[in-house]
Amino acid sequence: MRQDAADNREAIVAAARQLLIDEGPGVSLRSIAKAASVGVATASRHFPERIELLDAIGAQAAADINEIVERHLGEFGSDARSAWRGAVHEIGNLQLAVVAQAIITDTMQNPETLSRRGQLVESRMAEIRDVYDRLLVPAKNARLCPADLDPLEFHMGLGVITRPLPAGVPVPVDVDQLAASLIDIALDGLELRAQAK
């Protein structure tokens, strides 16, 4: 793939992901193309079927988690607790729960993508499990989380904690700070469970 085509593809995926976060499922390809500064024809060439775009968004989210994990793995030798907490907080900031919910809702609205959703979810979950395993093994060895903590359970729990409130809900607190505090509470609890065993 030529560099400009690769750049366009990356811009389309990034724009679609952000629009799913900001506007929810069902965002038109025209809106995505406009946000990516490409034509609709270019977006259609890269992603002839919507499921392909949704899969690329999921793959990018998994790659983002992987990049964070890779960056923090080298820190476990010197300060495992800081490496663990830093990685989890960064992953929490990715807004993956919103992305996942938008992708799933989007596939449910389109019969063509609904039939392929199971395959998409299954392959992405296997990828997510592998990425989190690499983070959880050193955390388990450092007794920062229980030895029996399942990677997907951890991923889903982090998504629940960091899922934003619905748009328009009046909130008297800083939601980002609240999410960070809830992550700390969850990590403290996991560490206590690991120490108790």
UniProtKB/TrEMBL annotation:
Tagged with keyword Transcription: yes
Keyword Methyltransferase: no
SUPFAM superfamilies assigned to the protein according to its UniProt record, in alphabetical order: Homeodomain-like, Tetracyclin repressor-like, C-terminal domain
Limits of the HTH tetR-type domain: 6-65
GO molecular-function terms, A-Z: DNA-binding transcription factor activity; transcription cis-regulatory region binding
Source organism, top-level taxon: Bacteria
InterPro entries (UniProt xref): Homeodomain-like_sf (IPR009057), HTH-type_TetR-like_transc_reg (IPR050109), HTH_TetR (IPR001647), Tet_transcr_reg_TetR-rel_C_sf (IPR036271)
DNA-binding interval(s): 28-47
Entry keywords, A to Z: DNA-binding, Transcription, Transcription regulation
PROSITE patterns in alphabetical order: HTH_TETR_2 (PS50977)
PANTHER family per the UniProt record, alphabetical: HTH-TYPE TRANSCRIPTIONAL REGULATOR BETI (PTHR30055:SF234), HTH-TYPE TRANSCRIPTIONAL REGULATOR RUTR (PTHR30055)
This protein's name: Bacterial regulatory protein, TetR family
